[in-house]
Amino acid sequence: MLSGTHKVLSQCKWSLSVTNFYRTALETETHWPAKCCLNIIPSVKILSNLDSKSQIRYKQREAEWSIPVGDRVYCSRQTCGAWIAPKNVNKATNSAKCNQCGRKSCLMCHGKFHNGNECPQDRGVQATLELAELEGWKRCYRCSALVEHNQGCRHMTCRCKAEFCYICSAKWRTCACTDRDLEGVRQRAANNRQNQEANIALAAAEARLLNQANAREVARLAAIEEEERQILLEVENYIRAEAEREIREAEEARLAMEAERQRREEERLAAIHVLFQRLHEEFDRLGWMQLNSLNERHEHESEALQEDHRRTLDTIAISHEAEIEAQIKETEQKVTDFQFKLIKEYETRRAEERRVENKYVDELRAFWTGKQDAEYKIRAARDELRSERAQDYRYWKSYRRAQLNALEDGEGKKMALLMERHETEARAVGEKSKADALELKKKNWSEKQWFVEVSMERRAMLEELQVQEYAKA
C-alpha cells in the first residue's frame, strides 16, 4: 500500500521524470519546494535521482531557501551577491564573510563591512553618539570606546588598559592639559544639558500654541470635511454596491464555469479510471491465462520427459531380461551338452574297458588253462586290471569335473559381466534423465522470468499511458 504522497506521484505524469521537478524548483523561489499535485516531494526522493553535482546544488538551495527572506544574508559585492551561510555570520561583530569572494558584509546595512567603525544605519549607535556629544564623553585613542567621566582627575584608564587624557583624548602625559581644563569640560557639558532642556521647553511651548491654532483650524476644516465626507460616502456606497454586485455576478459566473469545468474534468478522470481499471483487469486476466497455459505446458513437458524415461527403462529392462534369459539358456545348453558328452564318453569308456577286460581274460584263460590255480591267477590278474581301470576312471572323472566347473565358472563370469553392463546402462539412463530434468527446469524458469519481465513491461506501458491520459487538459 502506497502512502498518500507516493500514491499521487504514481498517478502524476511528473513522476516519470524527477529531474523536471528539480529544474523547475531551482529556477525561482516561488516554485520551492518541489511539489506534485500540491504535495511536497520529499528531498530524499529527488536526491536519489540526481547526480552528485546536482545533489550539491539542490542541497545548497534547500539550505538557503529554508531560511526566511528577512533573515538571509547575501554578499554586498555587486559582482558576487552569493548567499552567506549562517556558519559564516558573526553576530558579535555584526559581520558576515562570503565563502566565494571572501568579502565581509555588514549585518545592519547589508553593505560593505565598516572594519570596526559603527554602522551609520545603527539607530542605537547614533543615539549613543548624540548623547556622548551632549555629555562631552571622550573616545579611547586605542579602541575608540566611549568613556564617561563621573569623578576624579582627567587621568582615564580604558577597559583595554589604555591611559589617556579626558580633556583632549591624547595618550596620557603627551599633552599640556591641566585639571583646571577638566572643570571647563564639565561646565560645557552642564551648559549643553541646560541648553537642551531650554530648547525642549521652548519647543514644547511652541508646540502647544501651534496645537491650539491647529485645533481651531482643524475643527473648521473637520466640519467642512465631514459634510464632504458624507456626500462622498453616499457616492462611494452606491459605487461600492454596484461594484460589489458586478463582482458578485462575475464571481458567480466564474464559479459556475469553474464548477462546470471541474465536473467535466471529474467525469473525464472517472471515465479514464474506469477504462484503465478495465484494461488492468483484462491484462491481469490475460496474464493469468498465459501463466496457466505456461504452467500446463511445463507440466506436460515434465510428464512427457518422465514417461520417456520410463519407456526407456522398460525397453532396456525387456532387453536385459531377454539377454539374461538367453545367457541362462546358453549356459544351461553348454552344461547339458558337456554332461551329455561325459555320459557318452563314459559309456564308450565302459564298453572299451569291458572289451579289453574280456579279451584279457580270454588271453589269461588261454595261458593258464591246465595249470595249477588257474582260476585264482586269472581272477587276480583281472582284479588287478580292474583296479588300474578304476584308478584311471577316478583320474578321468576328476579331470571332467574340473572341466565342468571351469565351464560353469566361465558362464558365471559372463553373467556377472552382463549384469554389470545392464547396471551401467540403467545408471546412464538415470543420469541422462536427471540431466534432462534439470535442463527442462532451467528452461521453464527462464520462460517464467521472461513472462514476468514482459508482464511488468506491459503494466508499465499501461500505467504510462494512463498518466498521459490523466495529464491531458
Provide an overview of this structure.
It contains 7 helices and 11 strands. The N terminus is likely disordered. The protein is elongated. The strands form 5 sheets. The protein has a 3-stranded antiparallel β-sheet with strand order 5-6-7, with no helix packed on it. The two termini are 28 Å apart. Among the domains are: 66 residues, no CATH class; 203 residues, no CATH class. By secondary structure, the chain is mainly alpha-helical.
- N- to C-terminal separation? 28 Å
**Helical coverage, percent range:** over 70%
Identify the strand order in the major beta sheet.
5-6-7
Write down the secondary-structure element order.
HHEEHHEEEEEHEEEEHH
**Mean pLDDT score:** 79
Number of helices: 7
Secondary structure category: mainly alpha
| Largest sheet: number of strands, sense, barrel closure | 3 strands, antiparallel
Strand content: 5-15%
Over all CA atoms, what is the radius of gyration? 64 Å
**What characteristic shape results from the CA principal axes?**
elongated
Give the strand tally. 11
> Which spans have pLDDT < 50 for at least 5 consecutive residues?
1-16
